[in-house]
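pinned: reference chain
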Amino acid sequence: QKTTNSKSMALPDRVLKALANAREARPSLTDASSKQNVMRPSTAISKKEQERLDQAYSAYGIPSQPARPQTSASRAAAAPTPAPTPAMPAASVLLSFGVTKRPAAQQATPSAAAPNVLEDIDEDHEGMMAVLMARTLRLRAARTMLRAGDDALVDHVLKVNDASLAADVTPVLASRLEQGRSELSQSSCVEFFSMISQLLSSTYEQYNLAGLQFIEAVLSRWASDLRRVARPDSGQDLLASISTYGIREQLRAVSNAVSLLTCRSTAVAKPALRVHRHIDKM
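pinned: its structure tokens
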């Protein structure tokens, strides 16, 4: 009894009062089950006071209150809150940007043939660069020949016999003819129609447009001469009309190719139809 009193005297008054209330409510604690039912005071106490209270429970033979079993609510409260998943945009928003959703298992994976694709691209790049460099060198040579005159430029293009070079040079010759700055002779013009035929039969629209532009420039530059050739009794010099007659025959030779271009896209069909009408009027 003295030991119990000495331990109890060290406790605060509110703790002793709580113990007294527990003894009055449970005067006899004979079995372990009844001892476990004794409720601990609900008043909040410090850690040191809790240790003293546990010593007092031991002195009276009252076991410490067991931990409460966890319920589903307590488990949910103790579980860490997962990070919120960002909301996916609406399907209409994704479709407006051309994005379609598909399962992760079906997403494309890097192909094992990717290095081979890169090698093929590098090879094609080198080939294209070689073509562009060769074309640049031909254009530089053609510009040098243009300084010697239009006939020298036509002779150079005919010797090279390259459709890409002809497509680059023909608009320049056509522009000079339309502006009256060209010194191109009719004989050189007749020879150059062999390259014009290649441009008209090409599958590239840019080549077709270059050939049509040259024909329009020729029709505009020598329109009066072509009309005189159409009338044999005009009294003009026979030698002077030979080259003009050659131009007229070359225009008639490319008439079929021009008529085929009228069925192409609008960018080519309109000038082709215009050129075809001028040739028919000769």
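why pinned: Residues 33 and 63 are 10 Å apart (CA to CA). Confidence is low (pLDDT under 50) at residues 1-9, 29-42, 103-107.
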